[in-house]
Specification:
54% of the residues lie in helices and 7% in strands. It is mainly alpha-helical. Bound molecules: adenosine-5'-diphosphate (ADP) and tryptophan. Adenosine-5'-diphosphate binds next to strand 1 and helix 1.
Length: 331
């Protein structure tokens, strides 16, 4: 049995990219492995230092995780800040994380571009905290989307460095994981290659979106100037729509539109209508559960409490052993 762990920052609603990149894989594995899934609320402070609605965001993400199928009786589902041992491991790992390697990290460089007035130390050491999240439970498989690959490489670096420095074989190396072998990158609706909550308005389909909102966003999705000649190469925005369709529609439907594309008889409007309806069909049960769970504060409280307890037990053991390995001793 392997240990599996993943998490998502608590900065907004979950979208189909989060679902297909991370959560779906996790849900599939929860019965076979030792599984941890958490809400990265410490991490959210790197971009939102004073969120007026921190608790509400965390609550919403918890609801959406549960609605997406994470079973808190089987997996350990918790909130990062409920496990302060993570912060201690982060501090210890920071002593062996170098400024140069952190500055070279792609996501750091991107954040510097996006928020030049708030290049805080938390942003720089984001991958160290992420490594702490993972190795505190000594996880080896991490279901995430393709954009997290470099962070996983850094987590391996920090885990290996700890082992080398203290001459132990304590932390196993964690790897990004997807069921279909290849890591997923779900495209956005605005012609960009990635669905993301911080992309342009209308780029992402959220699990909690109402049917009307889904239809509107999909009908406005970027395409190109129309079918050209038979056999013409597909443009990126149209390829994105096909890739989205592969996630939510039947193989027959995809085949039908592919054929009409190849024959240059396709009408993008028809394709979008179909895509919207299939997305609605796919998200409807999730949305229904979100609405139910939102109202059930007692249940959410129980889930968070149970998760915190289980996660802390595992984290405490690691911290005890790490302190011993480094050489901290009680008098
Ligand atoms: P966002 O990009 O919307 O801010 P996060 O960075 O919080 O989303 O991502 C949370 C998880 O969801 C990560 O594991 C990430 O790899 C995955 N994820 C996010 N967007 C996508 C996407 N478009 N395709 C595949 N996985 C994604
Ligand atoms: N960096 C991840 C993201 O942006 C969130 C995250 C934090 C995470 N710690 C993690 C994911 C540990 C997997 C494992 O989505």
């Amino acid at each position: 049995m392997e240990t599996v762990l993943s998490g998502i920052r608590s900065t907004g609603h979950l979208h189909l990219g989060n679902y297909f990149g991370a959560i779906r894989n996790f849900v599939k594995m929860q019965h076979e492995h030792r599984c941890y899934f958490f809400i990265a609320d410490y991490h959210s402070l790197t971009t939102h230092p004073a969120p007026g609605d921190l608790h509400r965001n965390v609550r919403q993400v918890l609801v959406e995780y549960l609605a997406a199928g994470i079973d808190p009786e089987v997996a350990t589902l918790y909130i990062q800040s409920d496990v302060p041992e993570v912060a201690e491991l982060y501090l210890l790992l920071n002593m062996n994380a170098y400024k140069g390697e952190l500055e070279r990290c792609t996501s750091f460089k991107e954040k510097v571009r996006k928020q030049p007035d708030n290049v805080n130390a938390g942003l720089l050491t984001y991958p160290v905290l992420m490594a702490a999240d993972i190795i505190i439970h000594r996880a080896t498989k991490v279901p995430v989307g393709k954009d997290q690959e470099q962070h996983l490489e850094m987590a391996r670096t920090f885990a290996n460095r700890f082992n080398r420095l203290y001459k132990v074989d304590y932390f196993p190396a964690p790897y990004a994981f997807n069921f279909d072998n290849e890591l997923v990158k779900v495209p956005g609706l605005d012609g960009s290659t990635k669905m993301g909550k911080s992309e342009a308005e209308g780029n992402a389909i959220f699990l909690a979106d109402e049917p009307g909102a889904i239809r509107k966003k999909v009908m406005r999705a970027t395409t190109d100037s129309g079918p050209g000649i038979p056999g013409e190469e597909m443009s990126q925005p149209v390829e994105n729509l096909f890739n989205l369709m592969r996630l939510v529609s039947t193989a027959d439907t995809v085949e039908h539109f592919l054929e009409s594309f190849q024959q240059a008889t396709i009408r993008y409007g028809d394709m979008k209508k179909q895509l919207a309806e299939d997305m609605i069909r796919f998200t409807a049960p999730l949305r229904e559960r979100i609405l139910e769970l939102e109202a059930d504060t007692d249940y959410l409280k129980k889930v968070a409490g149970m998760g915190a307890e289980k996660a802390r037990e595992s984290a405490r053991k690691t911290i005890r052993e790490v302190r011993e390995i480094i050489g901290f001793k009680p008098f």
